Amino acid sequence: MSFFKSEQVQDDLHTIFQTYQEVASRSSAIGRMTPDEKKEHIEDCKGLIERQKIFYGRLALASAEDPEAADMKTRINSLVNAFGYKTLPDCMEAMVVTLEKAYQSEFGKG
């Protein structure tokens, strides 16, 4: 069975997309958020990144046997290469570092 035809994969993609839409829609209002809302938003962003990392790991494993998954992995890596990263996990780790810096800048190290 193709990686992308799996019901679990479809559910995961749907959840990731829904979470992305929610996070993206709130991002435009970050300047009007309370400190607690900002903290929650940063945590939601980090949670989305973690889901994406897990999904990419599964995609990478499937790419060894599924040409469609291998093609998607190659296309994702080509895209992140254009932004100066070797792989998607490298890019995502940089995103987490940026979010943690924003958190520390806004709320201090505690």
The domain tally reads 1
Spell out the helices and strands N to C.
Answer: HHHH
What is the averaged pLDDT score? 93
Task: Describe the largest sheet.
Answer: none
Class inferred from helices and paired strands:
mainly alpha
Please count the helical segments.
Answer: 4
Tell me what portion of residues adopts beta-strand conformation. Answer: under 5%
- In the predicted model, the low-confidence regions spanning at least 5 consecutive residues are none
Shape, per Cα inertia axes: elongated
DSSP E strands, number: 0
| Helical proportion, percent range | over 70%
SSE topology sketch:
Blueprint: H1 7-27, H2 35-62, H3 67-82, H4 88-107
Helix pairs in contact: 1-2, 2-3, 2-4
Written account of the structure:
- The chain has helices at residues 7-27, 35-62, 67-82, 88-107.
- It is mostly helical.
- Helix 2 runs antiparallel to helix 4 (88-107).
- The N and C termini lie far apart (48 Å).
- The model has no long low-confidence stretch (mean pLDDT 93).
Task: Write out key terms for the chains shown.
110 residues; mainly alpha; 77% helix; elongated
Q: What's the short version?
A:
The chain is mostly helical and 110 residues long. It is 77% helix and 0% strand.
